[in-house]
Amino acid sequence: MQIHALAVGWWDDPNSRVDVVLTAQDDVKGVSRLRRALARDRLRVEDVSARMGRRMPDATGRVGGQVAVFLVIGGLSMVLQLAMFWVLRQVGWHAQVANVAALVGSTVANTAANRRWTFGVRGREDHARHQAAGLAMLVMTLAFTAAGLSLLSVAAPHAASWVETAVVGLATAAATAAKFVIMRRWVFRPRAAPAAAQAPGTDPASEALATPDAADPLCSAE
Question: Could you report the per-residue pLDDT of 160-174, keeping only the tens digit for each?
Fold first, then answer.
């Protein structure tokens, strides 16, 4: 989003018939509708951006920012995973079973967070496909962590829970770099939209802006 400063000159018109209170109320209602639409993913920001001729950031750009957000989400997901693993071990679960359960729970949360915050994907479209891909990548992380626990069981059969937890953490961190590349290049990479047929002399974007859409939550009445 870009913000521009414009110089505006104001003149007081004593004969103005503008109802300031009513206008302010309508503005507040509009902002409320906008917030509800964004919160419920009913407002397609990509469509608005396309109508304005702007390009939305996607999974192919801003690598540095994506890496930073991805690492933050990954760190929080690892904390969630390790906490779940430690708790399940304390209640008597087998190390491998606790590892799988903690991985599944943290992976669902991680995929949802990366989908929205790292790669800027909103709405329900492809949500199931993205979660399925995230769970598929779970196999890779599971292989890393399971191998680490297996090696630990050979080297130190009676290792404490905190040692097992540390091994799981190191193995998970090793799989993070590969996971980011897979997410960025395949899972969340935007698919090319099919070219729509357009009659000569028509502009779909201009018509969409000029004609209110009854299904648009911003155009609906309170």
Answer: 989 999 998 888 788
Backbone dihedral angles phi then psi of residue 22, each to the nearest 5 degrees: -65, -40
Report the range of poorest mean pLDDT among 138-147, 173-182, 188-197.
188-197
Rounded distance, CA 85 to CA 169, Å?
10
Q: Is 81 helix (H, G, I), strand (E, B) or coil?
A: helix
3-state helix, strand, coil in the chain (%, to 5): 65, 0, 35
CA distance 212 to 206: 11
Instruction: Look at residue 74 and give its three-state secondary structure.
Output: helix
C-alpha to C-alpha distances, 209 to 33, 47, 122, 173, nearest whole angstrom = 18, 11, 22, 47
Q: What percentage of the chain has pLDDT greater than the value 70? A: 73
Using the 8-state DSSP alphabet, how is residue 124 labeled?
S
Number of neighbouring beta carbons within 10 Å of residue 138: 20
**Helix and strand totals (H; E) in the chain:** 7, 0
Two tokens, residue 118 = 């790292």
| Complete DSSP assignment for 138-179 | HHHHHHHHHHHHHHHHHH-TT--HHHHHHHHHHHHHHHHHHH
- Per the listing, tokens 């939209």 go with 193
- Sign for the CA dihedral angle at 117, 118, 121, 125 comes to negative
DSSP 193: P
pTM for this prediction: 0.53
- Specify the amino acid at residue 132: A
